Amino acid sequence: MIQNIQKYSLNELIQIAEKKYPLTFEPIKIGGISLSILQIKDLESYIDKLAQTQEQIELPFWAKIWPASVLLTHFLLKYIPTNSNKTVLEIGAGLGLCGLFLAKKGFKVILSDIEPDALLFMQINILKNKLNKNAEVKKINFIESQNIEPVDYIIGSEVLYLEHSYRPLVKFLSKNLKAKKENEVILSQSYTRKSNHFFDLAKKEFHIQQKTIGYKSQDDTDNEKFLCNIFRLKLKKYV
């Protein structure tokens, strides 16, 4: 992991990333806001190339923009009132899509992940979009129930894929969400993914609301509709 990543310029960070990955900036527009998001160029080809040259590969799932992230961003921009005094933590942020759009809208945002390269890409995206006054990156491992300065919102997309993380994640969320009635944890995941055990654990601490939303691919050759579930969690003692 790069030490003191905030001390590097945009060009210096891009040069570091280019030594490991083929890069491209892609324009992403959600809710009338446009951002330029750094991605691995032709991710599928990159993974195929890795598979040909390495016996064991670690798939860069953090580098993919998941439909659940896009839908969560739509939801947040539409339903969460903008307030520059409100703080947001995105866990398992990957490229930081959701948090970057909230930073653009004026929230104070922490983008977090445990993958060093994810932190690198997120910091590049912050600088590329001139969001360094509203956004910062931080390495956070919620499985270790790491404590931070409590925030008004904790958000995450597709973070419920490891069952052994469920119990420490519930503990992390309850500890690091500010104890106020209006504050929430907002999570999204694919409609087909089931994480019942997590919600069985979470309902001991949180009141949970669920909403299903979706969108159709803009690709003319692909009529697939993506569905995801949005979960809004509020601490029971403040509901």
Automatic annotation (TrEMBL):
Alphabetical list of Pfam families matching this protein: Methyltransf_16
Record keywords: Methyltransferase, Transferase
GO process annotations (BP): methylation
Keyword Methyltransferase: yes
Gene3D superfamilies, alphabetized: Vaccinia Virus protein VP39 (3.40.50.150)
GO molecular function: methyltransferase activity
Top-level taxonomic group: Bacteria
Listed InterPro entries: Methyltransf_16 (IPR019410), SAM-dependent_MTases_sf (IPR029063)
UniProt-recorded name of the protein: Lysine methyltransferase
Species classification: Bacteria, Pseudomonadati, Thermodesulfobacteriota, Desulfovibrionia, Desulfovibrionales
